[in-house]
Amino acid sequence: MLGLIALTAAFLFAKYQWLDPVQAADALFQSETARVKELVRPGSHAAGLSTLTEHTQQWTYWLFFKATSLHEATYAYFSGYPVNEVDRMYLSQFVARNAREIYLAMNVIQVYGIRIGFVLAATPLFFLLYVLAGVDGLTERYIRRACAGRESADLHKIGRLAKLMFFASGVT
Questions:
Q1: Do the beta carbons of residue 116 and residue 56 sit within 8 Å?
Q2: Cα dihedral angle (34, 38, 42, 43), rounded to 10 degrees?
Q3: 131 plus 117 within the same structural domain
Q4: Distance between start and end Cα atoms, the chain
Q5: Tens of pLDDT along the chain (172 residues)?
Q6: Residue 74 · residue 95 · CB < 8 Å
Q7: Long-range contact list for 21-29, CB < 8 A, 24+ apart?
Q8: Do residue 64 and residue 86 come from a single domain?
Q9: Do 117 and 85 have their domain in common?
């Protein structure tokens, strides 16, 4: 679902924002892959992150283009391979008319796969955050139960003493 939203946003950018959509999508893909290579240099502590982003990039591309045979149809059209009559109709009707949009979608889906890879890499941090927030909440609850309702009375007394402290600090 998110992939379709990413494609829709890319097509809107291509139609209304980018001057040359194919070149802009290609530049977007090249900049994202360069950013990944810069973030995860060989020998760094995040070397496994590059393989995760590569796998998600390849998986999303496979899901949207290779599983639907659009990849093979596009390359057959551009390479001029001989195909049967049904595929020739498909290629001439769909791929020939939408070649620029298909190339744009191919680049955008690969960028989407890279970004999904980074989100998947951050999943352990999100899990740690949820666990720590749960432990903090349970600790707070235990402290409140142990104080047996004296917390609100203590806050009232601290508030009354704060007025005196304000007066004392003004005098000094």
A1: yes
A2: -170
A3: no
A4: 65
A5: 676 777 777 777 777 777 777 787 788 888 888 888 777 766 666 666 667 888 888 898 898 888 887 887 777 777 777 767 766 676 667 777 777 788 888 888 888 888 888 888 889 999 999 999 999 989 888 887 777 656 566 667 777 777 766 665 555 4
A6: yes
A7: 21/100, 21/101, 21/104, 22/100, 22/103, 22/104, 25/103, 25/104, 25/107, 25/108, 26/107, 28/107, 28/108, 28/111, 29/107, 29/108, 29/110, 29/111
A8: yes
A9: yes
For residue 140, what are the domain limits?
126-172
Q: How far is CA 116 from each of CA 53, 143, 163, rounded to the nearest angstrom?
A: 8, 40, 54
Phi, psi for 69 (deg, rounded to 5):
60, 15
Which of 121, 140, 162 is the last residue in one of the domains?
121
